[in-house]
Amino acid sequence: MTQRVIHVGCGGFGEYWCRRFLPLNVQDGLVKVVAAVDVKPDHFRHAREGLGLPAKKCYTDLEKALKENPADVCTIVVPPAFHEAVVDAALKYGLHILSEKPIADTMAASARIAVKARQAGRKMGVTMSHRFDQDKTTLRYLLRRPGPDGPGELDYLVCRFGCDCRKYGAWGNFRHEIADTLLIEGSVHHLDFLMDMTGSRCRTIYAQTWKPRWGEFRGDCQALVTMISESGKRVLYEGTKTNTVGLNPWGQEYIRAECEKSTLILNWRKISSYHYQDHLAGRTADELKNEGEVIPLLQQPKWSNAWLIEKFVRWLEGGEAMETNVWDNLQSVALVFAGIESSRTGRPVEVQEFLRGAVAAAEKELGVA
Prior knowledge:
With 369 residues, this protein is α/β, with parallel strands linked by helices. It is built from 11 helices and 15 strands. The protein has helices at 14-27, 44-51, 62-68, 83-92, 107-120, 134-143, 181-198, 285-288, 304-316, 326-345, 351-365; strands at 3-8, 31-37, 58-59, 73-76, 96-100, 124-127, 154-162, 202-210, 222-229, 234-240, 254-259, 262-267, 270-275, 293-295, 349-350.
């Protein structure tokens, strides 16, 4: 059955939803967008041109859009601080929810949203687009490939995300106003896919975040992070928004996976595999030179958010829960806010304990037994 969608947020990244992600699923008959909502009427051109919506189906009043348009799903692409209010309105009208990351702008609000969706009996997913991008999906597949052709057991991961967005507005005005903008708006993706690649949840996180004087941000925009998974895998992460040059900017991250039999390197969306050669032990640097094997990326019709919209619809149709359903995605949000806590205290944070405390506090606040 085609899912009727009310889409909230047509500007900024919402333009991509209107022109790319939703249309691919409209073409497949999975969704039909019945209304669009935005506080800025100028943004409706994306909904009209990308989704074919008439002007009368474009609203600046969310409540009116929900009241006048029977729907099944609300898609949310607005700044994180406004997520909870949109979720509350959508749940009031009985809609399932697919939201942009992060769940909300605080750990408390994220936990409340998850509890509210559960109490309302509605399904909610979060679009962790980077984890389901073509290059990251290929690397995850390679890391989990068994047998003699696989890389063997993973030891540790290293990731570099380096940008030059130091000038105000270079990363969207609102992101320059967020106190912990790198972790909340950027690293939420990176920490998510890195921990997913380890195959287990995070046990501890230790983070150092800061803002250099030349960064035109309200809060911390640089980070060095160490994580240890429950399976004992280590992760090292460097995230920056004020460097002199974007060595590995948005979507072009460098990831190195050190494994028992291979080193896998993803850099600018290209993957190379360097195989262990025990007969080279003790040789000179020139003799040890290894060019690596270039690995072709996996191929399929949809990636990123377009693929996640399809996953969400299949879940609504009775299939398996999408991997980034709101309860599982609390793990990713906990990485962000436990990282912020670690940076402020200067100590490692036990992530699962941190998350349990946030959910318990949300349940108490909402009067859930």
